[in-house]
Hints:
Blueprint: E1 11-19, E2 25-34, H1 38-42, E3 48-51, H2 59-68, E4 76-77, E5 88-89, H3 96-119, H4 124-131, E6 136-143, H5 147-153, H6 166-180, E7 185-186, H7 199-204, H8 207-219, H9 238-249, E8 266-268, E9 279-281, H10 282-299
Parallel strand pairs: 1-7
Antiparallel strand pairs: 1-2, 2-6, 3-6, 4-5, 8-9
Amino acid sequence: MSGLPEVTKVDARVVADSVNEAGDRLTTMVVTLPRSALAELNTHRAFSRNSASSRAVPVKRMIEYVRRSPYVPRAFSVNKPGMNAHEFIEPGSPQWADVLAWWMQSVETALDRAQAGLELGVHKQEVNRILEPYLMHTVVVSATAWDNFFDQRLATDDTGAPLAYLPIYDAAAAMRDARTGSTPRHVAAGDWHTPFITSDERAALEPHQVRAVAAARSARVSYFTPTGDRVVGAGPSLEADLGLCERLLDPGEGSAPHLSPFEHVATPATPGSGNFAGWRQWRADVEASRSAQESSAQKV
């Protein structure tokens, strides 16, 4: 319909795909989905995740993004009893223009209230929450087990209508298609699965640098734009990525290390560690080293 905003599409792209000699496949992807679907993704404990943060992005930047490109659902569920929606108001439906206008009015109200909060001096971690229903959200996801997620989130009723919340259904479909369309790299024992690393970087850098940069870039998702438009190989310098890795491990006195990004970097191993089958996360090595250092320090 002319003059109406376009619906927003979810996106998933593979940034590392590896298979070990035993056939265990580890895939890392960047997923951009509606913020409202994040909780549905986070319930799946088979996933290692790092996520964009509403606390990390300035309010002005969030306001500009929502004003320029708000999240617009591709369909709205028709009200009915129960959890599952089997009918939808979508483009072409008689109600579409009115329902879409209602949604866009709510966007304007949220923008107005966010601007007011900014002018009152309220911190971004509070103000940005108002904008979350109208934002896309970027997550780095790594896993060796995907079937349960796809089975749950892509289930349909007898008519073919999704049983899951529509945004997580769309995200799962995009993730399935991205993984299906990807060819994993064979990784031998002693080698590593390293997201966000190009083949040229893997050849040029020392192995420990490759791991450090991969972990740092996985952590930088906190600063991705809501559309997940970080370009691999661009942005911060190699020195900045190496420095970030060090800060994740040792953020300073009074702060705990941030170890979740180290889960996306892994090496073939039997048994696996954490939530991976056939792969040992770098986090396991980091934690074992820290534990040994602390034990040694206590003996001194």
